[in-house]
């Protein structure tokens, strides 16, 4: 078996989700090569070479891959991936964007959001927003998968000594171009990587009230998320949304504040190790999944929590 | 320009799906079905492009059993002009769906193909991208804004950490995210009018596509249930439990 993992990176650093994807590759078994495609991505490639379990790092450093546009990445992965039995990428907005293109070009199906490996051809994935778990067997010559990071532990970032070679394959479809980007700037940890996540829901009332969550978060190094209701009400930006249609998180501690617990939201956080719910409605469904529930007005409880920490 | 919208008939999003007792699949017997919510957003966007004078015709296509005509009629009631049903009783995988849509794209020659980013049944999030690869069209996935500008379309995409805008040469594929728009409700006169709009039916064979499968469902199980824990009486008790019992603080 030979596995190609497509690295998630920003040219300078390797993103955490790559490490979880490498663990999924190790569960399949076989040689693991990592493709780092970008522009000026030498540092990310060096980081990938140090990850435990990686045999070889392939670097495709070209203008065409600077923004990892799906058209160019799909063509590149389809070409480099031909000799492998498995091609894996993290189920991030980047991986989900280009990997189906590569699969279609290879004339194989793709298996999305894999959370478990049963065998080299059999994988586990959630369907119906996590309300059912499917075990799927593939007869394709090349298995193409996206991996949900919360399903696998991160591989050790140090300890490996993979060889690094560069690829001169340049694919530039010329039909798409990067125009602009607005990334949320925050000193807090990234939602999907944080050990503690505090999320607010419709009960927060407005965007300004999220300030009390930020204060608690900064005290304990937590990330701040939100329910879809809070995002739809315009309290906070969309990239804070935790849920079926937002980010999937599985931190050590998840604190749901003023969140009723719609299925939509639960799908994004129910794999957290410990769940705390703070809500004044004691009938709120969130209490059915919470390890610790506190029935209280959040505007009393959160400031009290901040001073108690 | 012509806009093609692909829609899928799926379980209604308000229905909680149940797994069959023999773990062979989910049980969809007598379950309420509807248009996939992301597809509804795609239809709305296409209709808005027509209202703005950008699109001249909105063609809606669905692939599925005969009853999927209902979802095409819904799209026609929302403002699409004509429908195509590719009729099949088989459960299709995304690659086959993309191949069938490629056949429709070749026939219809749309400048923009709008579709949902994923369906809420299989949650694959693949078909638009696969169609892009098969037709060599560029793609703007997870769109929150679509702006046609001459022979290009600028698509703002919802990505991890924020928003990114890409400029795509037409023809292009756009897959919708939740915040692209809020779909309208069909009015009764429009529902009546939709009944008279043209709806063609064809088969996968008509498009020269062989329906084959490379994925088999081994089993489907319910997710591990989380049981409710305890209620604490105060913030101080909560902090104490988190520190000493759960050891997460």
Assess the beta-strand content of chain B as a share of residues. 25-35%
- H and E order of chain B: EEEEEHEHEHEHEEEEHEEEH
Oligomeric state of this protein: heterodimer
What can be said about the biggest beta sheet of chain B? 9 strands, mixed
From the N-terminal CA to the C-terminal CA of chain B, the straight-line distance is: 58 Å
Give the termini separation of chain A. Answer: 50 Å
Strand order of the largest sheet of chain B: 11-10-9-12-8-1-6-7-13
Largest interface, by Cβ-Cβ below 8 angstroms: which chains and how many residues each?
A-B, 89 and 76 residues
Percentage of residues in DSSP E strands of chain A: 25-35%
Helix content of chain A: 10-25%
Q: What's the mean pLDDT score of chain A?
A: 95
- Overall helicity of chain B: 25-40%
Query: If you average the pLDDT of chain B, what whole number results?
Result: 96
Say how many strands of chain B there are.
15
Judged by helices, strands and strand pairing, the structural class of chain A is alpha/beta
What is the radius of gyration of chain A?
A: 21 Å
User: What is the global morphology of chain B?
Assistant: globular
Short description:
The complex is a heterodimer of chains A (about 300) and B (about 250). With about 300 residues, chain A is an alpha/beta fold.
Structure characterization notes:
The complex is a heterodimer of chains A (309) and B (249). Chain A is an alpha/beta fold and 309 residues long. Helix content of chain A is 25%, strand content 28%. Chain A has 8 helices and 16 strands. Chain A has helices at residues 16-28, 42-49, 70-80, 95-105, 211-220, 228-232, 263-269, 298-308, and strands at 2-6, 31-38, 56-61, 86-90, 110-114, 116-119, 122-127, 132-138, 143-147, 163-166, 176-183, 196-200, 223-226, 253-257, 274-279, 292-295. Chain A has a 7-stranded parallel β-sheet with strand order 5-9-4-1-2-3-10, sandwiched between helices. Chain A has a 5-stranded parallel β-sheet with strand order 13-12-14-15-16. Chain A has a 3-stranded antiparallel β-sheet with strand order 6-7-8. In chain A, strand 12, helix 5 and strand 13 (223-226) form a beta-alpha-beta unit. The termini of chain A are far apart. The mean pLDDT of chain A is 95. Chain B is an alpha/beta fold. Chain B is built from 6 helices and 15 strands. Chain B has helices at 37-51, 69-78, 94-108, 127-135, 188-194, 235-244, and strands at residues 2-7, 9-11, 18-19, 26-27, 33-35, 57-64, 82-87, 112-116, 139-149, 152-159, 162-169, 172-176, 199-202, 215-221, 230-232. Chain B has a 9-stranded mixed β-sheet with strand order 11-10-9-12-8-1-6-7-13, sandwiched between helices. A two-stranded antiparallel ribbon of chain B has the order 2-5. In chain B, strands 3-4 form a two-stranded antiparallel sheet. In chain B, a hairpin with a 2-residue loop joins strand 10 and strand 11 (162-169). In chain B, helix 2 (69-78) crosses helix 5 and helix 3 (94-108) crosses helix 4 (127-135). Chain B is globular and about 65 Å long. The model of chain B has no long low-confidence stretch (mean pLDDT 96). Chains A and B meet through helix 3, helix 4, strand 5, strand 7 and strand 8 of A and helix 3, helix 4, strand 9, strand 10 and strand 11 of B.
């Amino acid at each position: 078996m030979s596995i190609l993992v497509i690295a998630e990176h920003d040219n300078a650093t390797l993103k955490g989700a790559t490490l979880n994807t490498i663990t999924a590759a190790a569960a399949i078994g076989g040689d693991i090569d990592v493709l780092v495609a970008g522009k000026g991505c030498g540092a990310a490639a060096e980081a990938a070479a140090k990850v435990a379990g990686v045999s070889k790092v392939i670097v495709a450093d070209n203008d065409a891959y600077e923004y990892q546009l799906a058209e160019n990445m799909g063509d590149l992965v389809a070409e480099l991936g031909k000799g492998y039995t498995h091609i894996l990428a993290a189920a991030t907005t980047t991986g989900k964007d280009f990997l189906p293109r590569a699969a279609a070009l290879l004339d194989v199906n793709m298996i999305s959001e894999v959370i478990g490996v049963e065998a080299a051809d059999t994988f586990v994935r959630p369907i119906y927003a996590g309300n059912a778990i499917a075990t799927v067997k593939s007869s394709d010559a090349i298995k193409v998968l996206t991996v949900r990071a919360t399903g696998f532990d991160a591989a050790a970032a140090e300890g490996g000594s993979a060889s690094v070679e560069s690829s001169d394959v340049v694919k530039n479809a010329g039909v798409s171009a990067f125009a602009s980007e607005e990334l949320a700037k925050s000193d807090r940890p990234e939602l999907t990587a944080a050990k503690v996540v505090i999320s607010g829901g419709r009960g927060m009332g407005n965007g300004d009230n999220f300030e009390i969550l930020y204060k608690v978060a900064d005290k304990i190094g937590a990330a701040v998320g939100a329910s879809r209701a809070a995002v739809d009400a315009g309290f906070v930006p969309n990239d804070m949304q935790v849920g079926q249609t937002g980010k999937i998180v599985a931190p050590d501690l998840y604190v749901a504040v003023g969140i009723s617990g719609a299925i939509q939201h639960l799908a994004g956080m129910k794999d957290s190790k410990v769940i705390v719910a703070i809500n004044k409605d004691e009938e709120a469904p969130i209490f059915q999944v919470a390890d610790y529930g506190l029935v209280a007005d959040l505007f009393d409880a959160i400031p009290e929590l901040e001073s108690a920490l | 320009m012509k806009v093609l919208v692909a829609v899928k008939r799926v379980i209604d999003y308000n229905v909680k799906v149940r797994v069959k007792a023999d773990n062979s699949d989910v049980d969809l017997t007598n379950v309420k079905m509807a248009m996939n919510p992301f597809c509804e957003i795609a239809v709305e966007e296409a209709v808005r492009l027509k209202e703005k004078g950008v699109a001249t015709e909105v063609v809606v296509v669905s692939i599925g059993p005969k009853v999927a005509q209902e979802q095409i009629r819904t799209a026609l009631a929302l403002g699409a002009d004509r429908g195509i049903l590719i009729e099949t009783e088989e459960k299709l995988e995304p690659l086959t769906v993309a191949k069938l849509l490629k056949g429709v794209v070749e026939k219809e020659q749309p400048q923009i193909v709008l579709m949902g980013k994923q369906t809420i049944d299989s949650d694959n999030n693949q078909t638009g991208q696969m169609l892009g690869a098969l037709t060599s069209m560029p793609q703007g996935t997870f769109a929150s804004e679509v702006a046609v500008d001459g022979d290009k379309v600028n698509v703002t995409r919802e990505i991890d950490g924020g928003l990114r805008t890409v400029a795509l040469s037409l023809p292009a594929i756009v897959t919708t995210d939740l915040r692209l728009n809020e779909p309208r409700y069909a009015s009764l006169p429009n529902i009546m009018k939709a009944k008279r709009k043209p709806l063609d039916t064809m088969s996968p064979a008509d498009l020269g596509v062989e329906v084959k499968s490379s994925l088999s469902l081994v089993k489907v199980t319910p997710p591990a249930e989380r049981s409710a824990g305890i209620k604490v009486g105060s913030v101080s008790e909560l902090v104490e439990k988190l520190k000493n019992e759960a050891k997460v603080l």
